Amino acid sequence: MSALRVGVIGAGVISQTYLENLTSFPDVEVVAVGDLLPERAQAKAEQHGVPSWGTGEDVLSNPDVDLVVNLTIPAVHVEVSKAAVAAGKHVWTEKPLGLDRESTRELLAQAEAAGVRIGSAPDTILGPGFQTAKRAIREGVIGTPLFVQTSFQTQGPDLWHPEPAFLFAQGAGPLLDMGPYYFSALVSLLGPVAGVTARGSRWQTTRQIHTGARAGETFPVEVPSTVQVLTSFAGGQHGTHLLSFDSALERHGVIEIHGSEGTIVLPDPNAFTGRIAYVKPLGVIRDGMRFEQEWVEIPAQGTVVGRGLGVLDMARAIAEGRPHVATGELGYHVLDVMLSAQESAGTGETLTIGSTVADVPLLPEGFDPFQSTLA
């Protein structure tokens, strides 16, 4: 099988890193870029040496495209992905996979019937940081995982983003904007979530833009800007999770797994690498004893790249006839968890998660993004 031919729909900010990486992988060939503004697609295509550009429809109708990379806004993720499936293309979509359960389930069913694959961001779980940590946990470095803690705290993207309103609108907020990174990582490690309880708050109903051409304008806050979630995993573990756009304390990327024989800290799930370290239990501590826990560092194994790894893994998995890592089923289960948390925050009830997902595989040993395996 030759390199998988890719068409990108959506030439916004995030397309830059995708195109930089995808055009550097020998097993992927980017053949088209499309956008609502064709001139924007043309600029990106010419910058990265892509031979064809136009609208999203031009990408969908292009017979040379095997897989569509959907980088549109979340509100049309499902619509664009369904159109790609109808055109006989595999799909990789930015997160979230969708914004509601019904249309997202329909997308997965249509893809299965058409015999094409769906992959869903985040692909940070394919980075060497997460992959190394997952292998260490599977090898028993902390014994049996018992419970987890995660935290994402910030004052809010309105402080730095020139167009922040969409991050506080329905389908976003800290839960649906940042939650995919944390919950995808945890489900990939521990398996499916069985139930959630959540509480949310929104202390401001409007916020102000602080930078860019619209600085000083206000916009509505439509969703909770702080959410705290308690998860129960099907494997018996439980977790606590804070996601906030209201915190004076800036603390990002906290993800800790506590086990029967130690605790491990993982890299920021919004990054492809980072610190991996664990501590072992102290043993007996007597009154007046002074102690200091020793952290054991684990070097990340693998090549650090960035967004686009999920597309590359799909290309190789299709050729090899194996499951890819960041599947649509994983994306749907994470969406179900987040929507259930959102609903629980509104009602105060504990909710059972209706979906599940199979064990999420590790990348094959020695996975090298820059190796040519499909020529």
Description:
Helix 4 (77-86) links the parallel strand 4 (67-70) and strand 5. The strands form 3 sheets. The protein has a 9-stranded mixed β-sheet with strand order 16-15-14-13-7-12-11-8-17, with helices on one face. Strands 3-2-1-4-5-6 form a 6-stranded parallel β-sheet, with helices on both faces. Helix 4 (77-86) runs parallel beside helix 5. It folds into 2 domains: 4-120, NAD(P)-binding Rossmann-like Domain (Rossmann fold, 3-Layer(aba) Sandwich), CATH 3.40.50; 125-297, Dihydrodipicolinate Reductase, domain 2, CATH 3.30.360.10. It has helices at residues 13-22, 38-48, 56-60, 77-86, 101-114, 128-138, 173-190, 309-320, 328-347, and strands at 4-9, 28-34, 52-54, 67-70, 90-93, 118-120, 145-153, 193-201, 206-208, 218-220, 226-233, 238-244, 251-259, 262-265, 277-279, 296-297, 351-352. With 375 residues, the protein is of the alpha/beta class. Helix content is 30%, strand content 23%.
